[in-house]
Amino acid sequence: MSSRLFAISFDARQPERLARFWSGLLGLERADDSHGGVALLSGNDADYRLGFRPSQARKVAQNRSHFDLTSSSPEDQQETVARALGLGARHADVGQGPDASHVVLADPEGNEFCVLEPGNKFLLGCGLIGALACDGSQAVGYFWREALGWPLVWDQDEETAIQSPNGGTKITWGGPPLMPDPGKDLHLDLAPDDDPQGEVERLLSLGAKRLGSAGGGDGAVLMADPDGNEFRVLTHR
């Protein structure tokens, strides 16, 4: 039994509006969604979607997870930043300092993301969405390695990263200390290969906790990883 990463989903007060922002920024096409939200095809080798799920949760702190967008040149970085600002993003201060070579922005609902400078060797070949960068422990990196069957591509000084065998977006964890729960964030949606209940049991054995029904009428199971980050196991696609 195993799961594949079906979607990286945003908690969104206005799913349609937020999806339009990310579609315009990344040039992504809309996909059918049967899980009560809006979805975009990522076009990434890791083969996931971007999901936008309706939520009235209020953001109270910096997100634990954010996208790192790559650039091929200084001009490309500047163009991505300008396009984001034109679509409704704003500059954000997360303590990066005035000399940072990357640009930190927040989307129209306050979700932080970075536009990286060119020449980032770690994310070379990962695509425009180079990484989902997460605040999290080494243990949670190990958990997601087993949950998704993605091999570790970094494991040093309590920092970990995994990547699909097909390439594409890396998922990284920066080690302790863990930031507080931001109230709304990005979450992973998993699609079991065959038996959803059996997959839930496998994830529990790896250290997850079952939180109950995810709501929305689609039968998804709401769980939390060892760091307490919520994720969903989809019972149908």
TrEMBL record:
Residues 4-118, 125-236 form the VOC domain. It comes from Streptomyces sparsogenes DSM 40356. It comes from the Bacteria. InterPro entries: Glyas_Bleomycin-R_OHBP_Dase, Glyoxalase_6, VOC_core. PROSITE patterns: VOC (PS51819). It holds the Pfam family Glyoxalase_6. This is VOC domain-containing protein.
